Amino acid sequence: MVGLTYVLSTLDPTLWLNAGTLRPARAILPAGSVVNSAPGAAIGMRSLTCAMTQIVTVGAFAQALPDLIPAAAPGGNAIMNIKTTARNGRPVMASIGPVGGGGGAMPFADGSDGAGGATGFLRNTPIEITEPEVPIRFLRYGLAPDTGAPGRWRGGLSAVMAFQVSAPETVITARNRNRSVMGAWGLRGAGEACISRFVKNPDTDQAVELGNTDLVHCAPGDVICVTGPGAGGWGDPFTRPAALVAQDVRRGAVSPGAAARDYGVAIRDGRVDDTATAALRSAPRPEPQPYAFSPGRRAFEQVWTAERYAHLTAFLAAQPVGWRFFLKHRVFAAVAAGETDMPALFTRLRATYAL
User: Fold this and answer.
1) Which of 107, 104, 36 is nearest to 75 (CA)?
2) Can you give the pLDDT at residue 15?
3) pTM for the complete prediction?
4) Which of 87, 110, 121, 267, CA to CA, is 20 to 30 A from 171?
5) What is the percent of the chain with per-residue pLDDT over 90, rounded to a whole number?
6) Where are the domains of the chain?
7) Rg of the chain's alpha carbons, rounded to an integer?
């Protein structure tokens, strides 16, 4: 219902939000599903699940009202927490701020940078407070260039945070981080958004891409860098005024290379090269699509078709709650290894574990 509230507010900003606003609607939440879980089910990431249901609701309305609804926001922020020890032996537990993406582009404006969508209300802990209390040193905290999806209106930029650990046995968590595989979708010919990144010791020969890991053990000198996922764009990026693209380049929001590749705008010495831009924008390119889905999503859906996922859902729904997570990962591993006969796979799993 929160997603519906966002949609109604978008369609009519003068609407009074009260109990009557949602009275005509009802939510159908099947028992045992992720939105109406049974006792014993994992609920630790419930806020991220809520955010994604809101984005799904917005996406459903976008199919009917594509000229009025914004593109997808990322849907989650990494809540960065640290457990470490000060030099005097004092244990330290601290939250050092959310790191997320911007807002989805609107049909008339760029998305907000650094925070947006359902999580735009979150506030950070200032570096000036954190560093005196926590034995870490911030190396970077700001906006990451080229993270807003290209469009006639650009998706909001992601936040990026990098810091260095100075105590042994330090543990970092990045809870609630979203879109490490599938980027937010763009609308009306725009581009899809970038995924989030979580890296230990970036730009070194010891660099480790942590993927969707949310707990990391660190030693003194280790560097952690987390970049939020991008937000979707709106409209064909080749129709974005070249002057706005040049402004983005001057601001550091878009690199010159991305300006040429994603927007068809050539920047020379900080200015638009009109001749080169005309050539780039007139060159053949793929037809813009109503929705832009990320490579990660397209690859996933090639393997996990709607039919195959329906079989998996039915199989898991019939199992005890405490077994579902375990069995799901067994199924995913088997499919990744080449299994194609889902009914036979389910039969083997039932026999193996006496289900």
Assistant:
1) 104
2) 87
3) 0.88
4) 121
5) 60
6) 2-236+288-303, 304-355
7) 23
